[in-house]
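Postdoc handover notes: sequence design on the structure in folder B. Input tokens:
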């Protein structure tokens, strides 16, 4: 294949925006399109090589994979080893254990599938994930595995028919990506079927160049360059991607491939020594940038200063030059390193990295490196959570139901899932202080209340009927459950239709709960809807890591803002407030602000005690901080009476 210097310059135009985007330079808000540029280039180069080999009857699948191994594996292995050693000293055990899973997925080139299941590319956690960028390598490798086989088998039908088959496949993939960003945005971003059309765009370009050569057209070449630059500076995280929006940079690359003949102004610009030099090290630069920046952010914080970002970018290119010179170039030299050695070295590196990954995982992220206080007891495994247990029926759920009426006026009944269970410790003390009984009805493993309100009209709920039977005038029924039952995840890519469907479920809940709980009003039983407690988002670090940071810095860590936390309960909060406002026999209360100090909450107390035992459950210590809050709320009912 004839060398085109402008293609290396185009690689520079792809890698620099990606690196600057991940370094936090807001000007390069669409820098992520550099990956799409890489996809088109890869599709073009690989297809060109395959066409030439097939037409000259020298195609060998072994030789093809040898070239790919020489190009990809040496630098990848070195950087994975360097990243793993660095992660050993930077990551806390839970995060290091998660890293081991991503490492294994990279070894088998399925990291795009792994991160599809685990991560949002534009979430905060993405900036802290060392191997997130390898998703694009996985997509390319999946293309390298399947496309040569397809091309060889389809070539018997003639190159023109093969060309049109690829055009059809590209169109289907593009349409799939249009459907995907509206319905499955994360899968759409990471998976090969919705990215294939970008690689196929390069393949289509390769056929055209084979038939008619590279044309000289200054205008079209300039349009192609401007299209790429426009997307880099105009797109941002809110741009649906990939979608028809990706056509702008993709067609920009296609125009450059087809019309940036070496005598055009654009080709001369892209062929400059500076851009070609960056293009030559672009693969190593892409591999280095994410681990360096992610691990550095793990150590000092997500938001980087301008100087820090600049120095990290400089370090990326220094390491890239060294990797290209001492790793990439030697392994591409067939005279020095033969085919057998390449395949043997690949097998050894795969095995070594796999064993390292398994070792990290089985040692719980090399947890022997740290000594931690005893973790909090996961009380959610206890069915009744300290509440009175009077009767036992056929199933475990009924163990927590009170079966006899109490003579005391003002008994407290708490009904809900584990997010209700977390306030049992506080309510039990409130009940003791008031001289009444406290009952917790656990619906965690049940299809009954409160989940039934979102699924069908409730006319006969056995749990509520039971409470209605045993509770008497002046008693309290508190209802609490996980905000997620009514609230979608905070994901900017959710479609409007999806949010509307969830909102309709919320309305169904509101109507059903009002219709049913009016029966409690007839018995003068006080109804209280309790809004949900703290929630650490998936993008936040682990509680274990929060404790490590506390021990290192001797101060509260992993703080989340009230505004951020409160925003995730909007549907639940609106539903509860609506019911309480419209129906005077229902009250809505919110204990979340009590746990916040200056609008921030940390799962680790000032004394180094756990206030949560996972991302969304309070410990007993935290629950007991709510005793006075619930005393006051229940006393308000007594005063009103």
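Designed sequence:
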């Amino acid at each position: 294949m004839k060398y085109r210097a402008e293609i290396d310059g185009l690689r520079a135009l792809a890698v620099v925006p990606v690196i600057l985007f991940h370094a936090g330079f807001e000007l390069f808000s669409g820098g992520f399109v550099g990956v799409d540029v890489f996809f088109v280039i890869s599709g073009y180069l690989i297809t060109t090589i395959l066409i030439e080999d097939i037409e000259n009857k020298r195609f060998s699948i072994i030789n093809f994979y040898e070239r790919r191994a020489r190009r990809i594996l040496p630098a990848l292995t070195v950087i994975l080893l360097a990243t793993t050693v660095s992660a050993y000293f930077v990551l806390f055990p839970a995060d290091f254990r998660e890293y081991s899973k991503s490492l294994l997925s990279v070894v088998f080139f399925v990291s795009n599938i792994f991160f599809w299941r685990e991560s949002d590319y534009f979430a905060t956690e993405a900036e802290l994930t060392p191997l997130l960028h390898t998703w694009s390598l996985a997509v390319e490798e999946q293309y390298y595995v399947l496309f040569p086989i397809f091309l060889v088998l389809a070539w018997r039908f003639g190159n023109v028919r093969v060309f049109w088959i690829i055009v059809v496949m590209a169109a289907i993939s593009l349409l799939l990506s249009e459907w995907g960003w509206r319905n499955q945005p994360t899968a759409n971003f990471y998976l090969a079927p919705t990215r294939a059309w970008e690689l196929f765009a390069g393949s289509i370009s390769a056929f055209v160049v084979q038939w008619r050569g590279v044309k000289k057209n200054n205008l079209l070449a300039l349009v192609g360059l401007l299209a790429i630059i426009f997307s880099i500076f105009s797109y941002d995280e809110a741009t649906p991607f990939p979608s028809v929006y990706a056509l702008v940079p993709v067609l920009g690359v296609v125009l450059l491939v087809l019309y940036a003949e070496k005598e055009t102004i654009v080709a001369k610009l892209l062929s400059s020594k500076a851009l070609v030099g960056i293009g030559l090290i672009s693969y190593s630069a892409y591999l280095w940038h994410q681990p360096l920046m992610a691990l550095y952010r793990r150590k000092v914080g997500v938001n980087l200063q301008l100087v820090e970002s600049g120095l990290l970018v400089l370090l990326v290119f220094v390491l890239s030059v060294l990797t290209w010179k001492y790793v990439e170039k030697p392994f591409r030299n067939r005279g020095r390193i033969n085919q057998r050695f390449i395949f043997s070295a690949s097998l050894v590196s795969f095995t070594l990295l796999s064993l390292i990954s398994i070792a990290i995982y089985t040692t719980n992220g090399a947890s022997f490196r740290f000594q931690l206080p005893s973790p909090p007891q996961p009380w959610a495994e206890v069915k009744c959570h300290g509440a009175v247990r009077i009767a036992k029926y056929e199933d475990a759920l009924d163990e927590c139901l009170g079966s006899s009426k109490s003579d005391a006026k003002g008994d407290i009944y708490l009904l809900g899932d584990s997010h209700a269970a977390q306030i049992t410790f506080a309510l039990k003390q409130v009940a003791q202080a008031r001289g009444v009984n406290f009952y917790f009805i656990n619906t965690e493993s049940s299809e009954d209340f409160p989940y039934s309100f979102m699924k069908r009209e409730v006319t006969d709920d056995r749990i509520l009927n039971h409470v209605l039977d045993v509770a008497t005038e002046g008693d309290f029924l508190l209802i609490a459950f996980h905000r997620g039952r009514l609230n979608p995840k905070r994901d900017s890519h959710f479609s409007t239709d999806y949010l509307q469907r969830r909102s309709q479920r919320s309305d169904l809940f509101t109507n059903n709960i009002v219709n049913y709980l009016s029966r409690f009003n007839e018995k003068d039983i006080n109804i209280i809807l309790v809004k949900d407690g703290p929630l650490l988002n998936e993008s936040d670090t682990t509680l274990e890591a929060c404790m490590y940071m506390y021990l290192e810095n001797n101060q509260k860590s992993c703080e989340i803002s009230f505004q951020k936390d409160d925003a995730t309960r909007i549907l639940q909060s609106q539903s509860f407030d609506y019911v309480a406002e419209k129906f005077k026999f229902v009250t809505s209360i919110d204990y979340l602000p009590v746990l916040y100090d200056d609008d921030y909450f940390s799962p680790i107390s000032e004394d180094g005690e756990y206030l949560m035992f996972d991302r969304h459950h309070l410990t007993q210590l935290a629950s007991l901080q709510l005793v006075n809050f619930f005393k006051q709320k229940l006393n308000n009912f007594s005063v009103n009476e």
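Context for whoever picks this up: The radius of gyration is 30 Å. Don't rerun without checking with the PI first.
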